[in-house]
Specification:
Blueprint (H helix, E strand, L loop, with lengths): L3 H9 L15 E4 L5 E4 L25 E11 L2 E10 L5 E8 L2 E9 L4 E11 L8 E8 L5 E12 L5 E8 L4 E3 L2
Antiparallel strand pairs: 1-2, 3-4, 4-7, 5-6, 5-8, 8-9, 9-10, 9-11
């Protein structure tokens, strides 16, 4: 029986884990012409020999990363308006699709070049928040080079006001980037 790591290596390289005639220490038993048992230790395998190809075919060379850089909460009476600044941190152009924030979806539909950021005013415009129930936000976007969709998950941090309402204090990116299927 092979060791755990030897068995794992065999699985990754597409080989059978358990081989007929193999002892617990990995040695292969053979019989000579007189039908006597001859035990020969296995030859050590090079670190790279027989390694499975781990790259996906058609996988993008770059997984783009677009994140919320800044958030601004504006209180106007009993109304709360939230604006966000989203930055393309990757070397490829992306098409911002939408942002999911506070249980609502706001369509962005904006092309963003590499390294560029843009402010989106009014991604939320509604009554003041009375609880902190929506703690996650997502930015969905498309890689313009291969048309694959991705999502960047963010944590929403709130600031409690003296009247027990809440505004958004910060939106923080939480890696990794999520690949979305359409």
């Amino acid at each position: 029986m092979p060791s755990f790591f030897e068995g794992l290596r065999r699985i990754l390289t597409g080989q059978e884990v358990f081989r007929a005639g193999e002892d617990a220490d990995g040695a292969v038993s053979k019989h000579d012409d007189n039908d006597e048992l001859v035990i020969e230790p296995q030859q050590p395998i090079s670190q790279y020999e027989g390694r499975a190809n781990t790259q996906r075919t058609g996988a993008p060379a770059v997984i783009p990363q677009c994140v919320v850089e800044e958030v601004e909460s504006r209180v106007n009476g009993s109304n709360l308006e939230i604006s966000v600044t989203i930055k393309n941190m990757s070397p490829v152009p992306v098409m911002l699709d939408k942002i999911l924030l506070l249980g609502r979806t706001h369509e962005l539909d904006y092309a963003l070049a590499p390294g560029i950021q843009r402010e989106f005013v009014g991604v939320h415009n509604g009554p003041l928040l009375t609880n902190r129930s929506y703690t996650n936000s997502e930015v969905h976007y498309r890689n313009e080079q291969d048309n694959e969709y991705y999502g960047a998950i963010h944590n929403v941090e709130f600031d409690q006001q003296p009247d027990n309402t809440y505004t958004i204090d910060r939106i923080r990116f939480i890696p990794p980037i999520k690949h979305l299927t359409r």
